[in-house]
Specification:
By secondary structure, the chain is an alpha+beta fold. Helices cover 39% and strands 11% of the residues. The protein has helices spanning 84-97, 116-120, 122-128, 158-173, 186-201, 206-226, 233-239, 252-266, 273-292, 294-297; strands at residues 33-38, 41-53, 56-63, 72-75, 79-81, 136-137. It has a five-stranded antiparallel sheet with strand order 4-3-2-1-5. Strand 1 and strand 2 form a beta hairpin. The longest helix has 21 residues, at 206-226. It is globular, with a radius of gyration of 20 Å. The chain starts with 32 loop residues before the first strand and ends in a 20-residue tail after the last helix. The model is unreliable at 2-22, 99-149 and 308-317 (pLDDT under 50).
């Protein structure tokens, strides 16, 4: 489905307020056809399960016409009744986003929960949901008319998915930022991984070096476009000046966000299937390296200085 949201991480399509009053009776019933927000767009979906958790209704939905891997738990703020009026709204949103009705656009896995409610039940959702983690909304300038089949599957380890949720919570809910410059930086981490592989393999392989160069390049280009929350923008403009590379300023927290976006970025690159498979394996190995060094690479708490950027959900991808 379209470039969706992880989150503050992007568009204003997520209309959730996170403070919907609890209700004893569910607004939607199991088997009901509904419209569900995914990022800035509405998709036809079917409610498969409805559960009252911590005084909040949660719905397990299946997006009609999409692989069941996209099935997920959502809050009431993500759903709308399937009425003629709301279908017109769906069409208007599609038109606004420039969607060709005859082309299925690739839904991208994102990292940010859609509301504070989602944050509360994250642990439960990870148990019940597929391993794609939370999504982050993105309004990347990239055309998102990529078919779902072309999206590369990148399995992010569960502890790193939890890291992404904590990351979202710190920035969007607690108004805290990663203190810059970070140590180790993205460049430092990539260098450490290269040394780790060289020591483990007994040699320095060109392919690993090229992949790390690619990750660094993607990170530097993608950070200002789709990896920052709105509240982090001023900090970015203050920290990245005079042609400084973001990879020499930012660290693991922002690098991890890249791997949520990487599938949709790679979808626009003409890569042979065999090469893509090898790339997936290398990326997974790198993520395991991040996981192994999680306590030293990632901050356990963010800086509590007042965020000067305005509040609001959605990452300003």
């Amino acid at each position: 489905m379209g470039n969706s949201s992880k989150d503050d991480s992007a568009s204003d399509g997520d209309t959730s307020s996170g403070d919907t009053p609890p209700s004893k009776s569910s607004l939607y019933s199991e088997g009901e056809k509904v419209l569900a927000y995914h990022g800035p767009r509405l998709y036809e979906a079917k409610v498969q399960k409805a559960e009252l958790r911590k005084k909040e209704w949660r719905y397990f939905v299946h997006y009609l016409g999409w692989n069941k891997n996209w099935d997920e738990w959502v809050g009431v703020d993500r759903l709308m009744k399937h009425t003629e009026e709301n279908v017109l709204k769906q069409q208007a949103l599609d038109k606004k986003q420039g969607v060709d009705k005859n082309v299925k656009s690739g839904r991208s896995a994102q990292t940010k929960p859609k509301s504070s409610t989602d944050a509360k039940v994250e642990k439960e959702d990870l148990k019940n949901n597929v391993s794609k983690g939370k999504k982050r909304k993105s309004e990347s300038g990239v055309e998102d008319n990529v078919s779902l089949e072309k999206l590369v599957k990148i399995q992010i380890p569960s502890t790193l998915r939890k890291q992404l949720v904590d990351d979202w919570e710190f920035v969007t809910q607690q108004d805290k930022l990663v203190k810059l410059p970070r140590s180790p930086t993205v460049d430092d981490i990539l260098t450490k991984y290269l040394e780790y592989r060289a020591k483990k393999d007994g040699m320095m392989t060109d392919s690993i070096g090229e992949i790390l160069k690619g990750i660094r390049c993607y990170f530097d280009k993608a950070l200002p476009v789709m990896l920052l929350y709105k509240k982090e923008r001023k900090q970015y403009h203050d920290a990245v000046v005079d042609n400084v590379s973001p990879s020499t300023v930012y660290g693991a927290e922002h690098l991890l966000r890249l791997f949520v976006k990487l599938p949709e970025l790679l979808a626009f690159v003409n890569i042979e299937e065999e090469t893509l498979t090898r790339l997936q394996q290398k990326v997974l190995d790198f993520l395991k390296f991040l996981q192994k060094n999680q306590s030293t690479f990632f901050l356990s708490a963010y800086d509590g200085s007042k965020v000067s950027e305005g509040k609001g959900k959605g990452k300003d991808d």
